[in-house]
Structure formats: C-alpha cells, structure tokens
Amino acid sequence: MIVVQKYGGSSVATTEKIAAVAKRVAERAKEACVVVVVSAMGDTTDELISMARQLSSMPEDREMDKLLATGEQASSALLAMAMHDLGIRAVSLTGGQAGIITERTAGRARILKIDVKRLREELNKQNVVVVAGFQGITENASWADITTLGRGGSDTTAVALAAALKADSCEIFTDVDGVYTADPRIEADARKLDTISYEEMLEMAGQGARVMHSRAVELGELYDVDILVANSTKDVPGTVIKKEDDEMEVRNPVRGIAHDTDVTRITVAGVPDQPGIASRLFATLAHSNINVDVIVQNVGTEGLADVSFTVQDADLEKAKKAIGPVTSEIEAREVVVDQNVAKVSIVGSGIRSNPGYAEKMFTAFAAAEINILSITTSEIRITCLIARNQVKNAVRALHRAFELEKA
Ligand code: ADP
Ligand code: ASP
Ligand code: MG
C-alpha cells in the first residue's frame, strides 16, 4: 500500500513540530509505504520573498524560483533527519530528484510529467521518501532549472505524486480539521464538511479558500484521486474531496463561502469604445502570465469606456508594467489602482439549477449595508467585489443567510 501525506508550513513551523510529524509518519510507515511532501517551515517563503524585495525591485524569475525552493529543501532534509533519529529509514529528495518535470514558466510552473523511477526505487529499499513540496525542474537535463509551482503549491506536489504512483491514499495535513463552510478563522460558526466535490472545492480554492491549492484539486479530479484534508496534530475525521455523490438531480445548495482579500482592482479609464481594445489589453496581461478576474466594462459615453479587472496583489507591479505600453498606445485617460477591495463568493452545485441565489446574496449584503462594486458568476458560484474592510461582515452575513451553520 502506498500513502502520500503532505504537511503544510504551520505543521512543520518549528523543530518540535517536525519531530511530532516524524512520529506520525513513523506510525503510518508501520503499515504502508509512505511518501511525505512538506512545505517550508512556517513563514519561510514570505521571509525569503521579503529578503528578495529588499535587494531588488523586481527580482528575476529564475533567481526567485531558486531562492524559494530552498524553504522546502530545508524542511524535507530536517524531517528525514528526525525520522532517522526514530530509527526509521528515510531519504529526502528535491522536487527535481523526485522526478517532477515542469514547464519553464517561473513562479507558477505547471507539472508536465513525473518520472517515478527514483521514487519507486527508494520505496523498494523500504525508505520513507520525504519530498520537498512546491517545486520541480525543467526538462533539459544539461540546462535544467529549478522551478516553483505557485504559492500553496505543495498540495499540488502531493496530489501529483499520488496520481503518478497510483497511491492508495492521499492525505493533506494542515492546521484546521478539514474544509469548512467558511474560513473558520473568520466565521466562528463555520462547520466542517465531511465531503465536498472537486468542482465545489475548485471554486472555493479559486476564490480564496487557501486550505487547498486549486491545481491540486484539478489534478485530483483529472486522475480520480480522493483527497483527505485533515488536522496534522489531532486524530479527528477530516474532509474528503471527491466526485459528487450520484443523487441524480439532488444537488447541494450553497456549500460554502469563500473570500479573498489578496486582490487589487485596476481600472483603465477613458479607453476608445471600439472593437479590439479589450483583446489588446488582456492579451498583454496573458503574455505576462497574469491571471485576471472580475472584468467589467462600463457603458461608454462620448466614445470612451472604462475597463476594470482584478489581479492578485502579488501581480500588481507586473500587471502595471505589462499594460503600460498598451494604455499609452490607445491613449487611455488614466490607470487607477484600488487595493481596498476583496472578493466574497457563494459556492454550491445547486446554484446551477436553482434561481434565487443571487437575489438572496444581494439581499443579505443590503441588510448588512455592504455595497457591491461588481459581480461575476460561474455555473456554481456567485462572486461580489466589495470593500476590503467589510469582508468579515460579508462572510458572516452570507453564512447566516444561507444557514450554513446547520447540518
Ligand atoms: P498549510 O500551511 O497547511 O498549507 P494553509 O494556511 O495554506 O495551510 O491553509 C489552511 C488555512 O486555510 C486555514 O488555517 C484557514 O484559515 C484557511 N481557510 C480558508 N478557507 C477555509 C475553509 N473553507 N476551510 C478550512 N480552512 C480554510
Ligand atoms: N511554501 C510555499 C508557500 O508558502 C508552498 C506551500 O506552502 O505549499 O506558498
Ligand atoms: Mg497551503
């Protein structure tokens, strides 16, 4: 039996915590072949980013990847040492050594393939294999570079390895008991879910529920890996992310509320209201590998319109740089940046087939005196952009309105 476990940053934040994780892994290793994926200790990744920024206004992608990958390399080596001290055979590997080949895109490289030969050999030698999460290596052997998978990417390492090894179990251990109806740190009445579908989890994760990396959920769905999310320090049942139960037309109403305060709204004001403008603007953002969300174009007056969209805070400088030349070419009046915004979403597969959710959401916001700046939807999600300082109120208002505290 092969088990892939992943321990997140807060679960390996100190040497004491690493020692505790080693004990848990040792227990599991009595009955299974174990591959453990670890994140960097505590806030290591943030600290490395901050050091890079102190030295360079826009650090080069390649150096940034190489720097950030060290966090996971340290924690994986330390965990292997802790296992040795318990008398357990263990070996730590970087992402590249574990055979994780990615595209070259820096900062959020996607995994192209995994060569599991080394992993299998180490498992055959009765080793617990500790893999540094969040990283891989580009393909060309003589020019291979270290890449990283994007913030929160160790989850993706774990699910990808589980898929490649056809593991019997994929377990993501973190600092909460599982996936909740809302971030339990914001909504005290949030309820832990026993199960959630890939589709719903993907929407939650994509809209800020950072308990799972979106791409990990995507891979889980693609390769049919059931993903257990559970607490790294307690033995309590977690949440299983899996295919939606087949109950014909019975669907979950709203499953959860997601929020994301890590967004910035960029408005390109006074652009010519004519075909091709949006495509030029968004093509340049896409070329710079910047994800764009909540796009709104106001009705033009006197031949001019305002285009606004949101990007992740971390992409703001890159986005400004990317659109600079286009906005001057099209003679846009001005570019306005607003960081005082946040997204709040309701997610549930029942939204698809039942009208009335939007109205209920907007009514709840109205009652809480929360102004909606813009709205986007998917089949199973409605997202509103609101002022950042109203996020907590908004999450709580929606949690109550959709009666999520009740089982
Ligand atoms: P790790 O370091 O283990 O990867 P993360 O900090 O990335 O942990 O993710 C866990 C955090 O996700 C929790 O501490 C919690 O605050 C947050 N979170 C946000 N939304 C949810 C949710 N719906 N359910 C559970 N946790 C959530
Ligand atoms: N250490 C990385 C981060 O902080 C990856 C991870 O924790 O999953 O984003
Ligand atoms: Mg995480």
Structure in words:
By secondary structure, this protein is an alpha/beta fold. It has a domain at 2-175: Acetylglutamate kinase-like (Carbamate kinase, 3-Layer(aba) Sandwich), CATH 3.40.1160. 34% of the residues lie in helices and 26% in strands. It is built from 11 helices and 20 strands. It has helices at residues 15-29, 44-55, 61-85, 117-124, 154-164, 198-206, 214-223, 277-287, 316-329, 357-367, 391-401, and strands at residues 2-7, 33-38, 90-93, 100-102, 111-114, 128-132, 135-138, 146-148, 169-174, 195-197, 227-231, 239-242, 256-260, 263-272, 293-297, 304-312, 334-338, 341-347, 374-378, 381-387. The strands form 4 sheets. Strands 3-6-2-1-9-11-12-10 form an 8-stranded mixed beta sheet, sandwiched between helices. A 4-stranded mixed beta sheet has the order 5-4-7-8. The protein has a 4-stranded antiparallel beta sheet with strand order 13-18-20-19, with helices on both faces. α1 (15-29) crosses α3, α8 (277-287) packs antiparallel against α9 (316-329) and α10 packs across α11. The longest helix has 25 residues, at 61-85. The chain is globular and about 75 Å long. The two termini are 34 Å apart. The mean pLDDT is 94. The structure holds adenosine-5'-diphosphate, aspartic acid (ASP) and magnesium ion (MG). The site of aspartic acid has 12 residues, from loops. Residues 8, 152, 155, 210 line the site of magnesium ion.
